[in-house]
Amino acid sequence: MRLFVLTLLVLAAAAQAGRNLVVNGSFEFTADGLPLGWSWSAGKAKGSMQLRTAGGVDGANYVRITNPTPTQAHHFSHLSTAVTVKPDTDYTLTAYLRGAVPGGGFLGGGPGWKTRFGLPGGKQGWTRFGGTFHTAKDQTRFQLMVLTESPTA
């Protein structure tokens, strides 16, 4: 089964360039097989997430995500955490992914899960990806997630 792996999630405001707002974005702090501050939902896709302790981009750790379920409406798995943000502000969200066939999915989240940056595939080694988004005038929280919605094999 092919899979994709993810390390170092960074969310930074334009005014605070270089400062990562994602707590434990490199998955270095763990408990019970999960990065601290993060939650995993296998959902209807019955995906799996494994914490790996060597070979990450920033630090040693990364997560390995697999999804065995064919694409179907409302069948997905996701890893998520809440991030405090400022209203009416531009942010840049980036992550590193490794996997030739990561399947369908996205890095993003937020209100209505409308912020979505597709998972890149077909490349060897760690690939940096992401994009920018703007928070709403009353938004102070961003639910950050990595979501898989089709087979990784």
Strand order of the largest sheet: 5-6-1-8-11
Runs with pLDDT <50, length 5+? Answer: none
Look at the structure and give the mean pLDDT: 86
What is the 3D form? globular
Helix fraction by DSSP (H/I, runs of at least 4): under 10%
Rg is 15 Å
State the major sheet.
5 strands, antiparallel
What series of H and E elements makes up the topology?
A: EEEEEEEEEEEE
What is the first-to-last residue Cα distance? 5 Å
Sheet-strand content, in percent, reads over 45%
Number of helices: 0
- Class by SSE composition: mainly beta
Number of strands: 12
Secondary-structure blueprint:
Layout (H helix, E strand, L loop, with lengths): L3 E10 L16 E2 L2 E2 L3 E3 L6 E5 L9 E5 L10 E8 L5 E9 L6 E5 L5 E4 L8 E8 L6 E8 L5
Antiparallel strand pairs: 1-6, 1-8, 2-3, 4-7, 5-6, 7-12, 8-11, 9-10, 9-12
Structure report:
This protein is mostly beta strands and 153 residues long. The chain has strands at residues 4-13, 30-31, 34-35, 39-41, 48-52, 62-66, 77-84, 90-98, 105-109, 115-118, 127-134, 141-148. Strand 9 and strand 10 (115-118) form a beta hairpin. The mean pLDDT is 86.
